[in-house]
Amino acid sequence: MAEGENLPALLRVLNGERLETPPIWIMRQAGRYLPEYRELRTRAKNFLDFCYSPALATEAVMQPLRRFPLDAAILFSDILVVPDALGQKVWFVEGEGPRLTPLLGEPKWTFGEPEKAIQRLAPVYEAVERIKANLPAGVALIGFAGAPWTVGTYMLQGRGGEKDEARRAIYERPDDVYALLDVLVETTAQHLAAQVKAGADCLQIFESWAEGLPPAIFQRVIIQPTRKLIDRVRALGVTVPIIGFPRGAGVQIGAYANETGINALGIDTQTTADYAFEAAPEGMALQGNLDPQTLVVGGEALDRAARDVLIAFKSAPHIFNLGHGITPQATPENVERLVRVVKAGL
Ligand code: CP3
């Protein structure tokens, strides 16, 4: 048997192989568009408790896999468990999103020790072990974390939305911001390494707020911390592939793909496949980039958009995915239809 033939399709593509039928998974594939998730969610009093319950997190991961023949599972957790574990207050407001006590309101920023934070995240690693034990053959398990800048913006501002205050802080309090990013680099590296130790087959780093940064600042708050993060993850003995997803990075995806040490590049909705081919190193696996809104609309518009993505990425090692997370308004029927179209091929 040729080398790699037993590997899940996702891992083969991450190793640079081009498959006739690309593997597919969907960012935020477990979540509120599934009625069974909404039911399960009522069993925990808040979202962080849900994330810290290995039984509930495992069940949430399994739900989409029972419905759809997906090629990967992603750990059920959140990028904001890291600030929570570092001792910042984090909570979720129903229908609005995450809230944190903003660092920008405080003259001095202090954080817990990375090692202590990782101890507090033990239930996450227990969830990874349980998920791994429950996964069907051929389905790869993805561990993840938010990138330092993206998690840092939430910590600075205390919420999502416009990132103007976080960007101003880079100019106003550069040393404080860089120190924050260093704490996040170390804690996130240990967090990712612990997920791999518990059974994750590969990793994704979500840089959801890569947009709107001048190139020099992009270097300083995105590329350098991500490079340090990946170097540190490797120094901790991790060898699995790492997907970087710099959403909104635009013309800076080339620098990101070439300079951070990632093994595969997540492509957002606005970016063309041809631009990504030119920008990324030769042969790098590319993941993306269907518009999540097509999963709300469905029908032939969805079929056409899905096939356009297949055609656009045909010549690359490609992982079919969305260009951003699935929305609560998407329907399970449309997801089923999408997976059917992708598996049918061109
Ligand atoms: O299948 C999966 O991918 C589930 C695991 C997952 C969640 N969040 C669960 C979740 C992952 C990979 C994330 C990543 C995440 N979290 C990101 C990066 C990806 C992206 O979309 O850009 C970000 C920025 C966050 C922070 C965060 N957490 C936001 C902005 C929200 C949405 C708030 C809302 O209510 O819409 C969350 C909450 C959250 N994380 C939910 C889920 C399923 C919904 C909350 C709930 O179910 O009660």
Features:
346 residues; alpha/beta; two-stranded antiparallel sheet; 9 strands; globular; binds coproporphyrinogen III
Task: Break the fold down into its secondary structure elements and pairings.
Elements: H1 9-14, H2 35-41, H3 47-51, H4 54-67, E1 72-74, H5 81-85, E2 90-93, E3 97-100, H6 114-120, H7 122-134, E4 140-146, H8 148-157, H9 164-172, H10 174-198, E5 202-207, H11 215-235, E6 242-246, H12 253-259, E7 264-266, H13 273-279, E8 285-290, H14 294-297, H15 299-312, E9 318-322, H16 332-344
Parallel strand pairs: 1-4, 4-5, 5-6, 6-7, 7-8, 8-9
Antiparallel strand pairs: 2-3
Helix pairs in contact: 2-4, 4-7, 6-10, 7-10, 8-9, 8-10, 9-10, 10-11, 15-16
This protein binds coproporphyrinogen III.
Written account of the structure:
The protein has 346 residues and is of the alpha/beta class. The chain has 16 helices and 9 strands. The protein has a 7-stranded parallel β-sheet with strand order 1-4-5-6-7-8-9. Strand 5, helix 11 and strand 6 form a beta-alpha-beta unit. Helix 10 runs parallel beside helix 11. The chain is globular and about 55 Å long. The structure holds coproporphyrinogen III. The site of coproporphyrinogen III has 23 residues, from strand 3 and strand 4.
Tell me the major beta sheet. Answer: 7 strands, parallel
Number of strands: 9
In terms of DSSP E residues, the strand content is 5-15%
Radius of gyration based on Cα positions: 19 Å
Distance between the termini: 27 Å
Instruction: Calculate the mean pLDDT score and round it.
Output: 97
User: Shape from CA axes?
Assistant: globular
Give the low-confidence spans: none
Bound molecules: coproporphyrinogen III
Order of helices and strands: HHHHEHEEHHEHHHEHEHEHEHHEH
SS-based class:
alpha/beta
Helix content: 40-55%
Number of helical segments with 4 or more residues: 16
* Biggest sheet, spatial arrangement of strands: 1-4-5-6-7-8-9
